[in-house]
Each structure stands twice: as C-alpha cells, then as structure tokens.
Design a protein that fits this description.
Homeodomain-like_sf, disordered N terminus, Tetracycline Repressor, domain 2, mainly alpha, transcription regulation, 2 domains, HTH-type_TetR-like_transc_reg
Length: 208
Amino acid sequence: MSSSEQESQTDSGVAAQPPMQRRLPRAARRDQILTAATTAFARSGYAATSLEDIARQAGVSRMILYRHFDSKSDLYLQVLDRMVQRLISATESPHFTENSIRHLLDAAAEDPDGFQLLFRHTAREPEFREHTNMFQQRGVEVARQHLAAMIPDQQWAEWAAALVPAAVIEGVIAWLDAGQPDPQGAADRLMRVVSGIVEAASMDTRGE
C-alpha cells in the first residue's frame, strides 16, 4: 500500500474524513453542520430526522456533531435561532415598506430551507413554536405602528396588523414553492396584497 493510501485510512482500517474536512476551522464546521441540519430538518421535520441523517448530510460523524451541539434539540434550536436572526437583520428597519418585503424575500431566497422550516414545520411543533411566534409577533408590532395612522377604526387596524404579517409570510412561502418567479417584481406583488388588506380594513360602510 502506498503512503498516500495509508494516510487515507485510520488505524482501524476505516476510511478517514478528507484532510480538508478535518482541518475546517471550528466556526466554519459549525456553520456547515447548521446548513446541513437545516436541509435535513426541512426535508423530514424534527421528529423524523435523526442525528445520523444530519451527520450524513454534513459528511461528518456523530462524534463531530456532539463536539458542536449537545443534542438534536440543541441543534434544532440553533438552526431556528440562526434563521430568526437572519430575518431580523434583513427586516431591522422599524418602518414597514416595500423594502422590508424585498429584504424578507432576499433572506428567504438565500435560505429557503430555513424559511420553510421556521414557518411551516416549526409552527406545528409545540416545543419549538415560540420561535415562529416571536418573529410573527414582531411583525404584528411593526404593522400596528405603521397602520395606526392609515386605518381610522382601531378594531379594523388591529385586524389588519394581525393579517398583514401572516399574509406576507404565506406569500413568501408560496413564492418559494412556485420556484421563486419574477424575483425583481415579487416584492411589488406582495405589497399589492398588503395594500388590499389596508383598503379592506379602511372601508367606510356607514353609508350602506
């Protein structure tokens, strides 16, 4: 056996990870695992995804996983936290504008698995649902501040504030499912949905 072949095996005769895999900096390795876990969880959901599935997706051993994460639930929480922080950074402006939706679409396009995991899978998982609720509640607060001066009736303003974030999130998910059509015009289309909600909430029915 050549020296190069010997170097590619461990003492037990089992093929080792390639040198580049072993030498990956800790932060980069952690990010690699998070990305792989996001894909695996989005494909099958939390309960149906094992650590073996994630290790296989990442191209590492379970031992490597445990060097970075305490458990499957810890890994899942880190995946969700990473996506929430990405979305918060993308929509950090306190004012709701077309740019807010555009940045949300950009973040979803950058990590479609993470977006769908957060708002499709996690919303159905009581143990982790608070992550979805946290971002949605933030959206409601922003919408409430933005719409208060636009919709005279307070009750209908509250209705719109609750509906707008839900409609935008579902709109982004549907956009991802459809293959991300018209990336340049997608934000404008979603803004038309928002405008329709505002118009409906602002209707004056006193003359009917």
